[in-house]
Automatic annotation (TrEMBL):
This is CheY-like chemotaxis protein. Residues 34-150 form the Response regulatory domain. Residues 1-20 are annotated as: Disordered. The modification 4-aspartylphosphate is found at residue 83. The lineage of its organism: Bacteria, Bacillati, Actinomycetota, Actinomycetes, Propionibacteriales. One of its GO terms (biological process) is phosphorelay signal transduction system. It holds the Pfam family Response_reg. SUPFAM superfamilies: CheY-like. The keyword Cell cycle does not apply. It comes from Nocardioides ginsengisegetis. Keywords: Phosphoprotein.
Amino acid sequence: MTDSDNAVDAGTPVPHPDAAVHTADAVQTARVLRVLVADDVDIVRELLRRMLEKLGHVVDEVTDGQEAVEAVSAGNYDLLLLDLSMPRMSGIDVARWLNAHPEHARDMNVVIVSASARDERPILNELGISLFLPKPIRRQELADLLDGLS
């Protein structure tokens, strides 16, 4: 192999680093997100993890609000997918904690994942949360939401 074998042909377009990468199963954004999924239902966490990983993102999981607070305190996440109804600390309590500790939520988007967030929307909007992903979760809705965050 010669050096010219490794060279890029001057006529070959080079994709922009932020360009979408197309695969057979999904369209991936070039930006890899670090995502925390907080839900007490195993199958929901598993489903979200698989969808997010298939889209090229890195995922951590926690099973309740207290674990979510601990993970956010220790880590640097781009996105928190947060269930409202969890043991030890509800999603609303986590949102209140995030408002009280903005240094841990800097540049992190929070998305409520719930089948029935309608009644809680006024409180969540007051807490600065306006992104919602309805259950049951559909891959295209998740992909669209992630595209909107880029």
